[in-house]
Amino acid sequence: MEYTKDLILNVRYDEANNTVKFKVKNRTSHFLESIKRHKILMTSILFMIILIAADSILVMNFIHILETL
User: Fold this and answer.
1) CA distance 61 to 59
2) If you compute the radius of gyration of the chain from its CA atoms, what whole number of angstroms results?
3) Cβ 20 vs Cβ 13: under 8 Å
4) Per residue in 2-58, pLDDT tens?
């Protein structure tokens, strides 16, 4: 019972200092863990963002060329 309560509430007992500590994850560590877990998905999303940026630059250059004609 105590073990499941500790897992659900993320509570750790420090017996040396007789205190209760909460196990809290940082947002950055959670983000980095998700990147490490889903490498293929993150790589494809990054590649898609690069292609969208390159496409928008090419379209803007094409419009600029059409304006000069």
Assistant:
1) 5
2) 25
3) yes
4) 666 666 666 665 666 655 555 566 666 777 888 888 899 999 999 999 999 999 999
Of the candidates 26, 23, 5, the residue with the CA atom closest to the CA atom of residue 14 = 23
Rounded-to-10 torsion of CA 18, 19, 22, 23:
-40
- In the DSSP assignment, the letter for residue 14 is E
Q: Is the dihedral of CA 41, 47, 52, 53 positive or negative?
A: positive
* Model pTM score: 0.54
As separate numbers, helices (DSSP H) first and strands (DSSP E) second, the chain gives 3, 2
Distances, alpha carbon 26 to alpha carbons 18, 22, 47, 66, in Å: 25, 12, 27, 50
